[in-house]
Amino acid sequence: MSEKNCIQIINKLVTCHDATRDELVFLLEHREQIDDNLLRFFFTSAQKTASLYYGNKIYLRGLIEISSFCKNDCYYCGLRRSNKSALRYRLSEEEILDCVTQGSKIGLHTFVLQGGEDNYWNVEHLVPIINKIKKITPTSAVTLSLGEMSSGSYRLLFEAGADRYLLRHEAISEELYAKLHPTEMKLQTRLEALNNLKKIGFQVGSGFMTGRPFETAENVADDLIFLKNFAPHMVGLGPFIPQADTPFSDKICGTSDNTIFLLAIIRLLLPNVLLPATTALATIDESGYEKAILAGANVIMPNLTPQGARCAYRIYDGKANACDTASQIGEIKEKLAKIGYAISLDRGDAKRIGDITND
Ligand code: SAM
Known about the structure:
- By secondary structure, the protein is α/β, with parallel strands linked by helices.
- The model has no long low-confidence stretch (mean pLDDT about 95).
- α4 (about 95-105) links the parallel β2 (about 60-65) and β3.
- It is globular and about 60 Å long.
- The protein has helices spanning about 1-15, 20-30, 35-55, 95-105, 125-135, 150-160, 175-180, 185-200, 215-230, 255-270, 280-285, 290-295, 305-310, 325-340, and strands at about 55-60, 60-65, 110-115, 140-145, 165, 205-210, 235-240, 300, 340-345.
């Protein structure tokens, strides 16, 4: 009976790109009982949906982790302000621009400036950097992932030339959000920030960690429905991985199987969304990139952060300390070639069906 229902729900996802909350809860609760053939059909359908828009090309984004200072205290994150063991650093403007120059020499056309919520990285300090990045590489997209700011600040960053903003909603259930964050952090504020970013004109990314402590199948279904309705340009989904110096040090790690299953659902709910195979997934599963792509992911983010700083940006434990950028891209190319994919060095905006090209 459950198998039959899973077939019906998966068929609906594949053909209608839709599912109700109850159907999603059912599917999530029966994931481990789905037989291999059905699972293969599900992942292949998600992969084919991605290739309808993006062919066999995987977009690359150069990630620059600009600061490990954070004023927030999220229970799951190693950068949380109460973590006295965390190593704190802030890249200089020169270091950031150097990362961009090196990345653009290799051909990258998207640079993601990510960091904790560091008061130093306000509009006053960010606008000149955005201007300078656009001078170095006018055709590249600048993505920011620096947490919650006022609508006025987001507007000034957009006007300075920032194109995209990543801000995971983390959990759409008030109850779950409150179990993952201290009371000073409000889901409402995060949702307002996401709405403001969209209104201003940013290409917006949202998402959540898979396998969060305390989550239920209902919570996950609500997150999926939220994403379907919010329709972001990008969705970030990576496993929760415990960090030893946080209150969640003893919580269970998210799994690769569950993450890949959720990536396939997202691909089918939001067919043209930009969907990274995350570093967190590659950290817990050495074939994580390949498995994610074969279930519908279409983005990988090589790390351009200078080596010294990279070790200090410890949001979770065991994060692969990736090699230099050129070697990372070489490794990614090799992995992709084995599954019939190749990198694209385009800016990598979200495509619509009419935009399909053979580039
Ligand atoms: N400060 C920005 C923000 O809040 O959006 C960007 C940096 S934050 C570290 C980026 C993302 O890392 C978060 O959205 C969260 O989902 C993820 N993250 C934090 N701790 C994690 C952990 N222990 N395991 C996996 N992902 C984690």
